[in-house]
Amino acid sequence: MTNTVQKRTLKTRAKLLDAARQVVEEMGYPGLRTEEVVKRAGTAKGTFFAHFPDKDGLLDHLIGADMDGILDQMQAKTRPQTVQDLIDSLMPLVRYMGSERAVFDVIIRRSGAAAIEDIGPIAVTFERQFTLFSEWMRTPRFRQDVAPELLAEGIQAFVVQAIALNFCALHNTLDLPDRLGPYLEAWLTPGPPT
Amino acid sequence: MTNTVQKRTLKTRAKLLDAARQVVEEMGYPGLRTEEVVKRAGTAKGTFFAHFPDKDGLLDHLIGADMDGILDQMQAKTRPQTVQDLIDSLMPLVRYMGSERAVFDVIIRRSGAAAIEDIGPIAVTFERQFTLFSEWMRTPRFRQDVAPELLAEGIQAFVVQAIALNFCALHNTLDLPDRLGPYLEAWLTPGPPT
DNA sequence: ATTAGATATTGACCATGGTCATTTTTGGTG
DNA sequence: CACCAAAAATGACCATGGTCAATATCTAAT
């Protein structure tokens, strides 16, 4: 019994991803149509859905790859020493996540998965974030009364909150770093307790 | 020039909402089809979209109404005095928000709006939450070094985070209140600073 | 080189959300 | 009551994501 991935599979997948990037470039995420992707890739529609479970699956790959690149940059830097430092380090990721409503929506939808087998690239980057942030928190510069992992999850929560509020007409008065600042100050370097 | 809302408008809208509730009852949110709603309401499809901007708009109303009811209950209670107390008060809302993936997704998508004019029922309940939580935070039982409003936004962020992780295969090991506990302890009653 | 079975591709087809020009109903006015 | 303009309802139609039985292609074994 053969059970190999054929070479053309990788080629076709690459063609689809390239075509998709091109379409996003030209029409933006809201203008992305599977028909158009398939047309440019020179494949049939069915091929698309043999490679990706659905349109979200494609977006997951495109956006996940971008996020992975940003995380590479972040990982190359030294551990942030202050909250301001942390925000500076976070901003590339935060700006990307909040760059478009369509992007943010996909990221939120795919940041976790109901089953292990459909964990996609974005969900993987969230695990990477978690690991990286946990590592960053292992310093006396930030509060020591709770585990670094908990602090890391909190950072993720506040990043999402800040971006979400920034998309909201009632709350988009503040710039992203200005919104993130108070959250993270309060979370990571709390003042005197009551 | 007449410029009034006709009586039948309200009737039709009520029929649509009733029909929708019925369909959700029978098939759940994932099984909700506009065709089915319209059929049961005895109207044409176009009528549906004259009353709601899109399917999400209908869900916004259904879910927003539920959340409003829960907030009524919460508002009737006295101000929570401890984190555990707070969690108990929050749980009805949290359980509802996390009851189904489909419900959570709509809530997240509609918790804010890009333009004032398309703020829907769910977005309104998020403002209500914010006001209520801010009020709850006006007590020396919780940390005093940051504004109650900031604490309130943090509570919202952690509620969303807890529910999101609970839907994720990699993280759904903890029960919701057990996940929320550490977050809110750390957020509202931080230990000795570094 | 042939063949068999696994793997990949195809495109007609379906399901469903959403549109809009047309028709019907409403309620105020002379 | 008859009339009219605004408001509401209609349903054929469109756009687009997704399916699947049929077909083509690959690869390994002989």
Low-confidence stretches of chain A: none
Give average pLDDT of chain A, whole number: 95
* Shape field of chain A: elongated
- Largest interface summary: A-B, 46 and 46 residues
Number of strands of chain A: 0
Q: What oligomeric arrangement do these chains adopt?
A: homodimer
**Order of SSEs of chain A, N→C?**
HHHHHHHHH
How much helix, percentage-wise, in residues of chain A? 55-70%
CATH superfamily caption of the largest domain in chain A:
Tetracycline Repressor, domain 2
Per CATH, the class of the largest domain in chain A reads Mainly Alpha
The Cα radius of gyration of chain A reads: 19 Å
Describe the structure.
- 2 copies of one chain form a homodimer.
- Chain A has helices at residues 7-27, 34-41, 45-51, 55-76, 83-97, 101-110, 121-136, 148-166, 176-188.
- The first copy, chain A, has 194 residues and is mainly α.
- The N and C termini of chain A lie far apart (69 Å).
- Chains A and B meet through helix 6, helix 8 and helix 9 of A and helix 6, helix 8 and helix 9 of B.
- The structure holds a DNA duplex (30 and 30 nucleotides).
Short descriptors:
2 domains; homodimer; mainly alpha; 9 helices; DNA-binding
A few lines on this structure:
The first copy, chain A, is mostly helical. Chain A has 9 helices and no strands. In chain A, helix 4 packs antiparallel against helix 5 and helix 4 (55-76) packs parallel to helix 7 (121-136).
